[in-house]
Design a protein that fits this description.
ph1033 like fold, seven-stranded mixed sheet, three-stranded antiparallel sheet, 10 strands
């Protein structure tokens, strides 16, 4: 039976591990060895990190295969930073997912897991929620099958809730980690609404052209037609219409 994990990470510019494009994760020394000995094909690895003052689960991979660093570096089909760790865990790209909307790993969600996190210090005001959760999830934590089912269910509900939008901190994290590219799992492309595309361009106009700035949106024209976006090139002064 596959063993599943909740794994912390810190985003580092120029070193993407976990890699959300390749759906892979590398680890070394005793932690990498422990994962290699326990993880099998079908294991779920959920990744979380600190964004602002909150912990967020940002992705998960369903392990397809495990490769040593030596073999990974010889494989021309493997191109990720994790290949230089002792062990590389490669996820199934169909079943693994990068979250368009990372889900908060807060007290409500944590209490639904089998981790047994003690929130007494938070309840009496001596520690923040972030401090309690960060302390309890500093190391890799094993998850039960019930934990996995619950997390997948909560993640799906959170992604489909149109009333929830990423905070500026979360959006900055996504852009920072991807060096300006918003990654949307290909199995969810058909679910993207026009309004979501508009919001993405409003927040990151550079994805359609360098030097662009949104100056107006949802503008009603004299003939009654609607202009979704009005952008201007801040360097050339040329206007673009979407």
């Amino acid at each position: 039976m596959p063993i599943n994990y909740l794994i912390p990470y810190v985003p580092i510019k120029g070193h993407k591990d976990p890699d959300f494009r390749e759906m892979s994760y590398g680890d070394s020394e005793w932690r990498g060895e422990a994962l290699k000995n326990n993880v099998t094909s079908g294991s779920y690895l959920f990744f979380h990190t600190k964004i602002g003052n909150t912990k967020y689960i940002t992705s998960y991979i369903v392990v397809e295969r495990i490769v040593s660093s030596e073999d990974a570096q010889k494989d021309p089909n493997i191109n990720c930073d994790g290949q230089y760790d002792d062990w590389l865990f490669i996820g199934n790209k169909i079943n693994s997912k990068r979250l368009r909307k990372p889900i908060p790993l807060n007290k409500i969600l944590a209490n639904k897991l089998s981790l047994g996190i003690d929130f007494t210090d938070f309840d009496n005001g001596s520690r923040t929620e972030l401090q309690v959760i960060a302390s309890a999830t500093r190391s890799h934590r094993q998850l039960t099958l019930d934990d996995v089912d619950m997390l997948i269910s909560e993640i799906d509900k959170y992604q489909s809730n149109n009333k929830i939008e990423n905070t500026s901190d979360v959006q900055y994290h996504l852009n920072f980690y991807d060096e300006g590219d918003e990654i949307i799992p290909f199995d969810e492309v058909h679910k993207i609404k026009e309004s979501e595309i508009q919001k993405l361009i409003r927040k990151n106009p550079s994805i359609i052209g360098k030097g662009l700035k949104v100056v107006d949106y949802e503008k009603v024209l004299p003939d009654g037609d609607r202009l979704d976006l009005l952008l201007v090139n801040r360097h050339e002064g040329v206007k673009s219409f979407v």
